[in-house]
Design brief:
Helix content is about 30%, strand content about 20%. The protein is α+β, with helices and mostly antiparallel strands. It has a five-stranded antiparallel beta sheet.
Length: about 130
């Protein structure tokens, strides 16, 4: 089992300061941004690395004992519902192409009984 790399720290941002958690498994796909769980907002948010990294610091021992348990618990709940940006697009791009047989099956539509009331198309040019 792979070791999970989680870092807990504090975002020093004036009135928006908050304990934060970084899970290395969560990647934005953009080297200029980073996902952090913000405890005050209770959400995993995407931040600009250039703006946020200078404002991050490790938790003090007192903060660690105060926030660690709550942060891990709430991060677990937030990450269960988390959909990274572009995840659905990436899943579509990585999806196995549909075979011709599968394609024809998806196009099969059962005839509605009401269609039987319409006359069949007759090509008048053959007469």
């Amino acid at each position: 089992m792979a070791k999970q790399n989680i870092w807990m720290g504090f975002l020093e941002a004036g009135p928006k300061s908050s304990p934060v958690l970084r899970d290395d498994k969560l990647e934005t796909g953009n080297p200029k941004t980073i996902y952090l769980f913000n405890l005050n907002k209770g959400e995993i948010l995407e931040y600009s690395r250039a703006l946020v990294e200078p404002k991050l610091r490790d938790l003090t021992a007192a903060e660690q004992s105060k926030y660690a348990e709550e942060m891990q618990s709430r991060f677990g709940k937030a990450s269960a519902d988390f959909q990274p940006k572009g995840k659905n697009l990436n899943a579509i791009l990585r999806a196995k192409p549909m075979t011709v047989k599968e394609s024809k099956r998806s196009e099969e539509v059962p005839l509605d009984e009401d269609l039987e009331d319409f006359p069949a198309y007759e090509d008048e040019s053959e007469e």
